[in-house]
Amino acid sequence: MIAERQRRSLLWRLIHQLGSLKLALVLLGTIAIAIATATFTEAHFDAAVARVWIYKAPWFIAWLGVLCINLFAVTLTRWPWQKKHTGFIITHYGIILLLIGAVIGSKLGFEGNVTLRTDGHPQRKIVTDRSCIQVESPSDSYLYLMPLDTRFLHTSVASPKYLPVPGTSLRIGIEAVSEHLSPQPHLAPASGKAGGSGVLLDFSSGIMKQTLHVGLSTGEGSQGTYDFFGRAALALVSNAKALPTHDPNDKKPWLDLIPASDGKSLEYRLGRGASVTSSGNLHEEDLLPLGWADWRLHVSQIAKNSAVVTTPAPDDSGAESGVPGFRAFLSNPEGEKSVSLWVASGEVVPLVLGKEMVRIGYGLELRPIPFSIALVDFEVPRDEGTETPSDFRATVRFKNTKTGSEKEGLIRMNHPASYPGGLLANMTGFNYKFSQAEWNPRDLKETTLQVLYDPGWLPKWIGSLAICLGIATMFYIRPRE
Amino acid sequence: MKLSSLIPLLIALLSLNLTPIATALAQVSPKSLESLVIQEGGRKKPYLVFTEETLRSLSGKTALNLDGQKQDAMTLITGLWMSPDDSWKAKQLILVSNLPLRKHLGLDSAQKLYSWNELTSNEALAKEITAAAETRRRDPRAKLIGLQKEASDVGMRMGFFESLLKGDDFRIIMPLSGSDWVISSQIDPTEGKEIIESVNSMRSAWTQHDPNRFDQAATSLLGLQKQVGGLPSDWKISLEVVYQKAHPFRWSWILYAAAGIVLLLSRNSWERLGYHLAWVLAGSGFLLQAAGLLSRVLIAGRPPVTNMYESVIWVAFGTILFALIFETIYRARSFLLGAVPVAVASLILADSQPVILDHSIHPLTPVLRDNFWLSTHVLSITLSYAAFALSLGVAHVALAQVIAGRKPTAILYTYLYKTLQVGVLLLATGTILGGVWANYSWGRFWDWDPKETWALTALLGYLFLLHGRISGLWGGFGLAVGSVIAFMSVLMAWYGVNFVLGAGLHSYGFGTGGFPLVATFVGGELLFVAIAFLRKQRLGSA
After folding, report:
1. A53 CB within 8 Å of a chain B CB
2. B229, part of any domain
3. Which of A175, A342, B367, B373 could form an S-S bond across to B437 if both were Cys, CB 3.0 to 4.6 Å?
4. Does A310 contact B at CB distance below 8 Å?
5. Residue B413 placed within a domain
C-alpha cells in the first residue's frame, strides 16, 4: 500500500522522503557530532563561543527544524495508524512538543537574576543575560534598546559597525571592542588651581606580568601621591620644600618626583627609609629600573597646567580584569564624525557631533516585572563543625505594584519561590520563579536569585512525559493481536 | 518493614568476612577506641573511619610500613594523637603522588611518601605552593592546574599533618552550646574533669605501653561521651564500623570473578551444573554488594550515587542486576558472561584507586541535597550507564566469538538489542528528569552544560545505532561494534566531562585523575573492535 500511494501521489512521496530513516540517521549523527564538538570548544575557549557558533547558531536551529519535520513526517508514513504504533507516535510527537516548548520559552520567556539585600530597597527590575546598547534619541529623548554583544562583534576602524540612532539621520559607529576596560589615567589640560604639573607613569614587571599606569598632578583635585601595592610610596610635589619626610625606621622604598619649571623634565629621588639611594633627572620616554623586584618606570608624559582624569580604556596591565565595552563615534549623512570614546559596561557616555548630542550606554538588559521583591531574611546554615554551607534560605516579600497585596515566600536550595504562584501559574509557566543562585560569603545580608519566566513550561513537561512513556510503550508494551 | 529493622541482618551479613587488622606489632592496641564518635568533615563518624580516612588523605593508604613494621591507620593516627612529639615530623607519611611534581622537586621518582621535614625544606615545593596561593589570592575561583595544583594538594596534606600533630582534629565532645564539637583540651576543666582525665590516662598508658590501662581509659571515655550526648544512634555507628572493616565490594568482585570463571570453564555435561553454580556465586556477590550499598545509604541518608566512587560501584551493581534479570527470563549465559568482566573491572578500579575515587562519605553540596531528584534523575542516568555497560559486555561476547572464528547466533544479537533498549529508555528518562530538576530548582530546562550535552550526545549515539539497525543499514555485527563505540560516549558523559573537560587542557599531560587508565581502556576497546572487524571480513570472504 505504501509503495502504491508513493507512486500515485507526489505529496506522499515527499512525506516518505522527509520521514525517511536515512534522513533521521543523518540528523542524529550530525547533531551528536556538532554538540560533542561544542563541548570541547567550550572547555578550550568560552561557553559563549560554543553558544554562538553551535547551540544558538541559525544553522543549528534550522537543523532542529528539519528534525521536527522528519519526526512529524515519519509518523505520517505509518498512516493509517494501528495500535502497535502508539508508543512510536507518542515518542516522536513528544520530542516535537518539547522542542516547541523550548522555542516558546526562548521567544516569550526570559531568564535573569536579581541581587537583593536585607537592608536594601525592594527591586522591580531583573537583570537579564542579554547585552544591549542603550541609545537616547535626541528626537524624542526616548531610550532605545538594541541587542549588542561585544564578544561577537567583528569591527575595526576601517570598517566600523553602524547602528542607526532612532528618529534621526545620525548613526553610531563602533570601531573597536574590548573585554577588559578599566579606568585609566590621562592628563587633561586644566586652568587655575586645578591645573598643575602632571606626569603619566607606567610601571611594569616581567615577573609579575603586569603593567600599571599612574597619573599624578600637583593641581588641586588631582592626586599627588600613590600607594604602590602597600609596598612602596610615590609622591609628586611642586618643589623641594614640599618633599615628604621619610621615617628612618620604615624600610619601605619610596620615589619622590619634582617637576622642573620648563615642564619637560622631572627630578627624581629614589630611597629607602631616610636615605636616598639614587637621584637624577627624567624626561619623557625615559626608563628607570627601580630596584623593587624587577619593576621599571617608564615616563610616558610630562605636562604643565594639567589635571589627572580617568576614562575607561582597554586594560593592558596583564590582569584579566575590567568590564566589556566598545569605542564609538557619531556620524551624520554628510560623513562628519565625532570624537570616538570608549563606552564601558554600566556607563553612559555622551557623543557630540555639531549641535547634536546622543547619550549611549552599554550593559545587560534590565527587565521590569509587574511586582516588587524584597529580601526579608537570608540565612546560611552550615554543616556541623565546618563553615561549609548546607543550605541557603532566603525569605522574600512580593508586592503587587497595582493592588498593593503582599505575599511572603521562602527560597531554599531546590525549593524555589514563585509569583504569582498557585497551581495554574506553576503549570503553565506564566509565573516568575525565584531560586537561589549566588551568595557573598563576606556579606550575609546579600543574595542573588535566579529568575525564570517560562511560558513554554507546559509543552516542555507534556513533551518530556510523552517521550518517556512513549519509549516505554514502544519497547515493553505489545498490543494483543 | 522499617529500614532500620534490617540492620542486624545487614551487620550479620557484612560480618561474615571481616578481615583481621594487622596490629600485631603495636604494643597497645587502640581497638577499644574504634566506636568513639568524632566530628569531622561536616558529620559524626566512628573513630575507626576517621583514622582510615585521615591516613588515606595523608598517604593515600590505610596502612603503612613505618619504623620497620606495618601499622594500620588506627595505630598510626592514635599514635599521633597520644604522643604528638617532633619525631613524627621525620616519618615518611605525606604523599607526593604526582610523578612530574616529584621530578620537578628533585625527589626520588620511585618514592611516593615523604616526611614533613623533607617537604618543608624543599624550596621548589615552597615556591610552587606560594605561586598556587598567589593564583588563588588573585582569583578565589581560579582552578589550579598542573604542578601548582599538585603542589597545592601536597601543601594541603602538610597542613593537615600539622593540624593533626597539634591535635586540632580530634574533636570528640559536644560543648554545652553550639554544634561545633571540641577537642579534649578545649573542655571546661571543671565540667569535663573526667573526660580530660580519661584522655590523659590514655596518653600515659600509650607512652608507657600499658594495654590494660589504655583499654580502661578508652572504655571510660566512650561511656563519658555517651553521657554528654549528641551522638548518632548506636546502630549507625556499629553499622559504619562493620561496613568499614568488611570491604563488601571487594568480596563481591571476588564472587563475580569466580562466577565468570565457572561459566567459562563449565562445558558439555557440566554446563548445567556450572550455570547453577555461577548463579549462586553471582547472586551471593550481588547480595553482598546490595548490603554494602544499603549500608552506605543508611549511614549517609541518601542514594549511593553522589561521587565518582559511588557511581562506579553503583554501575557495577546495576550491570549485574540487569544481567540477573535477563538471565532469569532467558537463561542465556551470555548476559552474565558479559556483565562479569565489567563489574569485576569496575569494582577493582574502585577499590584500588582511593586517591582518584574517594571512598569516604562526605556531606553533599546544598544543590544536590534533594533525595527525590537524586534518586530519580541520578539513579536512572547511572542505571542507564549500567545497561550500556551490560550491552558492552554482551557485545564483547559476540565479538570474541567472531574473533574466535565462530558466527554468533542471531539470538545473541537480539539479547544485545534488548540491553540497548533498557539503556535508551533509562538514559532518555534520566536526561529529561535532569532537565525537569534543573527547570524546577534553578531555572532553565536545558543550557547546553557539558554534562547535559554529553548525556544527550550519548543518547543520540545510541538512537543512531538502533535506528540504523531498524533500517537494515547494519546487522547484528554492526550493532555489536556500535555498542562498543557508543559506550565511549557514555564514558565521556560519565568520566570525561568531570575529569577531562572539567580539568581543562593541561590535565592530560600530568596524568592525574586516571586519564591514562581510561585512555588505555578506550584504545584497547578500539583495537578489539578493529580486530573483530578484520576477522569478520576474512570470515566473510572465506
Report:
1. no
2. no
3. B373
4. no
5. yes
